[in-house]
Sequence to fold (184 residues):
Amino acid sequence: MTTEVVRDRADVLVGLLCSQTPDVDTATKKLGVRLRRMAHHLERELRREFAAEGIEAWELEVLLALHSAPGQRRSAGALLRGSQVTAGAISNRIARMEARGWVRRDLDPADRRHVLVTLTPDGLRRTEQILAIRTTAEQRLFGQADAATIERLSNDLRELLLAIEGPAVDEDAKQACAEEAAPI
Fold:
């Protein structure tokens, strides 16, 4: 008795590609298609949930960067480096969050030319709210798969990322937590 494998959209797309270009590495191509499709589903779900709460993806990025920092404080320069936006953009983002009461800006006592950005109690509550929304969205999206599949896939993706990025060091892990938090 043979069990027929159910084809997904990646199988169909790569099958079409292979009919015109037979020397394609189908396993690699299918992985790329599936990863892009999964990322699209996750981003769409997170955007939908965040939009319902009036949350922007960049807000989560900045709030989590502050949440994971010692004393829940980082320099504006560190936030700039972690966000990959212009100095003007990060300044505007910090100002918007300050106006909402989520962060506070202070001059660095060690060097008054620099600004320190600190998460406020309201900012901490907002961070926890956004994290809860994100967790619920991820559970809803991935909840259709059994726990063993999720665990296996997570481990396989770790191996793939290790092959691409190499192992993390402690500082990388802290930065990755802040970067990973950004859903987009």
Strands lie at 73-75, 103-108, 111-119.
